[in-house]
Amino acid sequence: MWEYSDKVKELFFEPKNAKAVENANGVGDVGSLSCGDALRLTLKVNDETQVIEDAGFQTFGCGSAIASSSALTEIIKGMTLDEALKVTNQDIADYLDGLPPEKMHCSVMGQEALQAAVANYRGEVWKDDHEEGALICKCFAVDAVLIEKTVRANNLHTVEEVSHYTKAGGSCTACHEGIEEIINTVMAESDERAVTDAALASPAEPMPMSLVQRVQSILAVFEEVRPQLKADGGDISLIEVQEEKIFVNLDGACGDCQMASATLGWIQQRLVEKLGEFVRLIPVNNTHLALSRRQ
What we know:
By secondary structure, the protein is an alpha+beta fold. The chain has 12 helices and 8 strands. Strand 6 and strand 7 (245-252) form a beta hairpin. The longest helix has 26 residues, at 176-201. Residues 286-292 have low confidence and may be disordered.
């Protein structure tokens, strides 16, 4: 026996808005008597504000279908049409403090009836998608499009869950393989999307440079600045690399130039940009290098 919430019981025994709205200007019909569930939703919409002023339902079905239809009308009254179209079958189930898994198809039917009624008000032809895809479940006339849409919207993972939400596969088992194929396709797409989103949200940290790569980058910067140094009669050569310390020798005129510190600062900035890390450029001769190593 299924467990029903107090809210479901309340709206089953004393349903609200169980009526055909007078002068309704939006009507939505879904389901069929042959499948065991049918729902007509009638709306009275204010043409100026697009607000749903009244809503009523006529349902042929079980207690969950009656409660779901009643809940839907209570939710959408006072909403604009655009707001109402954002109501999902899960919103209906939540309003009822939950539905037994086997009865979730009742909330799906309510959502479709709302879409059909709004389309009718707007003078549009609403299609329930049941004729657009290959027929999967012949027992309840449920096609691939509806199953896929329901799987995506409610994050379903099993044939049993699909049966609860759409009735597909709930009678015989002939369509179970087809339902599983749809579920697997949707899950594969979701997994691929999750991997992509994770990669975009947390890009991989760049691999740190090896010593050889750092030396090559340093020498590349020296080659870039060398023409300017030589134009003033100087040059620069790499002596040694110790973590963030880069020991160099200023040759020629640069070695005795009063602007040597400024030149080193300029080259050091180029190195920081090239390496993507802070480094210190230290001019040394052999004696200075020996002292620096002890620091």
